[in-house]
Design a protein that fits this description.
Strand order of the largest sheet: 1-3-2
Structural class: mainly alpha
Low-confidence stretches: 1-5
Shape: elongated
Strand content: 5-15%
Distance between the termini: 22 Å
Number of domains: 1
Largest sheet: 3 strands, antiparallel
Mean pLDDT: 86
């Protein structure tokens, strides 16, 4: 209920929030909601990413590439809006390859598209409980 009361205040201060990006990111803690993994998007991977995930899953790199990876405009992807949209989330929203997740997953929510506009940040705050808590904490301590 607290976030429903406080969110209008945060929207009014969104530009200020974007200028506090580093402070917000330092307070961010993943809550394992799985919402970022379920969002429509593309998860690109590198060869080292693929090798680490394959090894973790007990697969050969060739098997991983042939069963998990697709190419979109030449880029290797493990998830797209139509291919494995839940990526590696299990039924409890836990990532099966968390320790070996690709860079895009490791750097969330520090993605340029999240911080490029008030609207994008507001949308992400609604989706991600961890980001919402970090924003509220940063707002309370500033």
């Amino acid at each position: 209920m607290l976030h429903q009361v406080r969110m209008p205040l945060l929207y009014d201060k969104m530009c200020q929030m974007r200028t506090q990006k580093e402070g917000i990111l330092s307070r961010f803690r993943c809550t394992s909601s799985g919402n970022c993994c379920k969002a429509a998007g593309y998860v690109r991977v590198t060869l080292p990413d693929m090798a680490a995930m394959a090894d973790h899953l007990g697969m050969s790199l060739a098997e991983f590439q042939s069963t998990i990876v697709i190419r979109v405009n030449g880029w290797p992807m493990i998830s797209t809006p139509t291919h494995r949209p839940r990526c590696f989330l299990d039924e409890t929203n836990r990532c099966q390859v968390y320790a070996h997740r690709p860079l895009a997953c490791r750097t969330y929510p520090d993605w340029p598209e999240i911080w490029e506009s008030d609207e994008a940040l507001a949308e992400e705050i609604q989706k991600c409980p961890g980001l919402r808590a970090a924003v509220i904490e940063a707002e309370c301590t500033s």
